[in-house]
Design goal:
Helix content: 40-55%
Radius of gyration: 44 Å
Region (Disordered): 1-20
Biased composition (Polar residues): 1-14
Distance between the termini: 44 Å
Strand content: 15-25%
Keywords: Membrane, Transmembrane, Transmembrane helix
Transmembrane segments: 29-56, 185-206
Oligomer: single chain
Length: 553
C-alpha cells in the first residue's frame, strides 16, 4: 500500500501492482463461475444426449402389414378433443417410438435433466450477474454517467438476482409503467429470469410426465411371407372335366357319389367329406360367418387356421340358404292326415327321412330330374322331412307328420382376411352355375339323404316349434353341401400371408419426448449464450455484490 512518503515512482508501481492483483482475482472469479456453470451444463447435456441416443439406437420399426389385412378399431364415442386430452394425460399421445431398452433405465436418465434443471438455472443466473458486473464496471471506467444505474435500478437488479417471483412481478410492473426498456443489465437479467423460471417449472413437470407414460408395451411385429408358405384357401380341382359324359355329372372327381352308375347310399367313414360333415376332420372345417333368423352363410376353410399365428387372405366357397314353410301335415295314430298350425309347440324328436327336389325357377314348378343336374346359381329346391315322433302340447299323444320347405341357395366365390385370430374381412361374389351343379349333385339321387337325415334330425331337436326349424334346415343344407362337395376340391395357396409375433418393447410417446428434448435444448442454449457474452476482464473485484446464488427454479 502506498503512503505519503513514497516517491511518485513507487506510488505508480504500487498502483500497478494493486491493479494487477485485482485483475488476477477477477480472472480467477471468472474461471470459477464458468466452471461452476459448466458442471451442471455438462451433466445436463450428457443426460439429454444419452436419452436421444438410447431411444434412436434401440428403436424397433414395427411393420404395418398389408393394407388388405387390417382390422378396424372400435370407436370410443368420444370427441377428437376429448380423445386428445385423454391420450395426453394417460399415454402421452397415440404416436410413439418403440425401443428394445429397459423403461426404468430410460426414465432414470430422463429424470437427471429434471433434477439438474435448478442447478443449471442457478448457473445461468450467476452468469447473468457476471454480465451485469462487467457492464457496470466498464460503464464506470468510461465515465458514461448517463448509462450508470440509478439506486432504484440497482435495487431492482439485486432483487432480480434473488430469483423470487415477487421481484420478477415487481420488475415486470415497473417496465410496463415505464413504457420503455430497462438498461442492458436489468433487461437481460429480467429476460433470463423469466426464461429460467418458466423452464425450471416445465422441465421437471414434463420429466415427471415422461416417467409416467414411458411403459413396457407388447407390440405385434408383422413380416410378409413371399411367396405364401401355407395353403388355407379352397378351390375346385383344376384341369378336371366338370360335366360327366354319360350322366352329365358335375366334375369327374365326384365319381365317388355314383357317377359311374353304381350308387352308394352314404359316404364311407374314411372319406374326408364324411369327416367334414360329422365335424371330425383335422384338415377342413366349416364356419358360419353371419347368421340371423332367416339367413345363414357358411364357408369352408382349413382347420389349422385356429391355431395359426399367421395373418392371411385366402379364397373359399360360401353358401347362403333361405327356406320357408310350405306345409306341415300331422297324423295321430290311424286318423286322417290334417294340417298342423305352424306355431303348434310340438317338438320333433326323430327325423326318419329327408328328401330333396330341385327346380329351375323360384316358384318351384320346373322340376329337374335325374340324370340331369341343377347347373344353376341360385339353386331352387324343395325339402320334406318325415317326422317319426311329435309330442303334443298336452301329451302323451304321439303324432307323425311331414314338414315341407321351399328353399333357395346362393353360392359365392369368397375371399376372406384372417387377422389376429378372427375374420377381419369377408367379400363374396356370386359364382357361375357350374358350381351350383357341384353343390347340388349329392342331393339329386338320394346319395346324401342318409347323412342329411342325421344332421337335420339333430338340428330339429333344437326347435321349439316349426318356425324354429326353418333356419336350422337351411343351415343344415349349406353345411352339408359344402362338406359333400369337398371331394372335388383342393387346397389353394394363400393370396397374401404375413407372420405375426409379439415383442415386449418400451413405448416412448413422441410428444413428451420431443417436448422434453426441446426444453432441455432451450435452457442449455441459454447457458451457452450467457457464457459467450462474458470475458475475463469483468470487474468482479469491484462489484462482488452482483454475484449471488440463484435460489429459484
Amino acid at each position: 500500500m502506498s503512503s505519503s512518503e513514497d516517491t511518485p515512482l513507487q506510488q505508480t508501481e504500487d498502483a500497478a501492482s494493486v491493479k494487477k492483483h485485482k485483475k488476477g482475482n477477477s480472472a480467477k472469479a471468472y474461471i470459477s463461475i464458468i466452471l461452476l456453470a459448466a458442471v451442471p451444463s455438462i451433466i445436463f447435456s450428457a443426460a439429454t444426449a444419452l436419452l436421444v441416443v438410447f431411444t434412436f439406437r434401440n428403436r424397433v420399426i414395427l411393420g404395418d402389414g398389408s393394407g388388405e389385412l387390417q382390422t378396424s378399431h372400435a370407436s370410443d364415442n368420444l370427441s377428437l378433443a376429448s380423445r386428445t386430452v385423454r391420450d395426453f394425460i394417460k399415454t402421452g399421445g397415440s404416436d410413439a417410438y418403440y425401443i428394445q431398452f429397459n423403461p426404468s433405465t430410460l426414465t432414470t436418465i430422463a429424470s437427471i435433466t429434471g433434477k439438474f434443471a435448478p442447478y443449471l438455472s442457478s448457473a445461468i443466473m450467476g452468469l447473468a450477474a457476471l454480465f451485469a458486473a462487467d457492464f457496470v464496471q466498464k460503464t464506470s471506467q468510461k465515465e458514461q454517467n448517463d448509462k450508470l444505474l440509478t439506486p432504484n435500478q440497482l435495487t431492482l437488479l439485486i432483487g432480480l438476482f434473488s430469483g423470487r417471483l415477487e421481484e420478477l412481478w415487481k420488475a415486470t410492473r415497473v417496465r410496463a409503467n415505464m413504457g420503455g426498456k430497462f438498461a442492458a443489465p436489468i433487461s437481460h437479467t429480467l429476460t433470463i429470469l423469466i426464461i429460467v423460471t418458466v423452464l425450471g417449472v416445465l422441465i421437471p413437470a414434463v420429466d415427471t410426465w415422461f416417467g409416467i407414460v414411458v411403459k413396457p408395451s407388447e407390440q405385434t411385429q408383422l413380416n410378409f411371407t413371399t411367396p405364401s408358405n401355407h395353403s388355407f384357401g379352397r378351390g375346385f380341382l383344376q384341369g378336371k372335366d366338370c360335366v360327366y359324359s354319360d350322366y352329365h355329372y358335375p366334375c369327374e372327381a365326384l365319381k365317388g357319389y355314383g357317377a359311374d352308375g353304381n350308387f352308394i347310399p352314404y359316404l364311407p367313414t374314411d372319406k374326408e367329406p364324411f369327416k367334414i360333415l360329422n365335424n371330425i376332420s383335422t384338415k377342413n372345417t366349416i364356419s358360419n360367418i353371419s347368421s340371423n333368423s332367416s339367413q345363414s352363410l357358411f364357408y369352408l376353410s382349413d382347420a389349422a387356421i385356429s391355431s395359426s399365428k399367421l395373418d392371411f387372405k385366402a379364397s373359399a366357397f360360401a353358401i347362403s340358404t333361405q327356406c320357408e314353410i310350405i306345409k306341415v301335415q300331422c297324423q295321430q295314430g290311424d286318423r286322417n292326415v290334417f294340417d298342423c298350425t305352424k306355431q303348434l309347440p310340438n317338438r320333433a324328436t326323430d327325423v326318419t327321412k329327408v328328401g330333396f327336389k330341385f327346380y329351375n325357377d323360384p316358384s318351384l314348378t320346373g322340376n329337374i330330374s335325374y340324370p340331369n343336374y341343377a347347373f344353376l346359381n341360385p339353386l331352387y329346391f324343395y325339402v320334406f322331412l318325415e317326422v317319426g315322433e311329435l309330442y303334443g302340447p298336452e301329451g302323451p299323444d304321439v303324432f307323425t307328420g311331414t314338414l315341407e320347405f321351399g328353399c333357395s341357395s346362393t353360392i359365392f366365390d369368397a375371399t376372406y382376411a384372417w387377422v389376429d385370430g378372427s375374420i377381419a374381412q369377408f367379400n363374396v361374389s356370386s359364382t357361375n352355375g357350374s358350381i351350383g351343379g357341384v353343390m347340388a349333385a349329392p342331393f339329386m339321387n338320394d346319395n346324401a339323404n342318409i347323412s342329411q337325415q342325421a344332421v337335420i334330425s339333430s338340428l330339429a331337436r333344437l326347435s321349439a316349434n316349426y318356425s324354429d326349424a326353418v333356419p336350422l334346415t337351411a343351415a343344415a343344407f349349406s353345411y352339408s353341401a359344402l362338406a359333400l362337395s369337398y371331394i372335388g376340391m383342393e387346397s389353394r395357396a394363400n393370396i397374401i400371408e404375413q407372420s405375426r409375433s409379439t415383442l415386449t418393447l418400451t413405448r416412448v410417446p413422441i410428444i413428451p419426448f420431443y417436448i422434453l428434448i426441446t426444453l432441455n435444448a432451450l435452457i442449455h442454449d441459454s447457458s451457452l449464450q450467457r457464457r459467450k457474452h462474458q470475458g475475463p476482464g469483468t470487474g468482479l473485484g469491484e462489484i462482488p455484490w452482483l454475484i449471488r446464488p440463484y435460489k429459484g427454479y
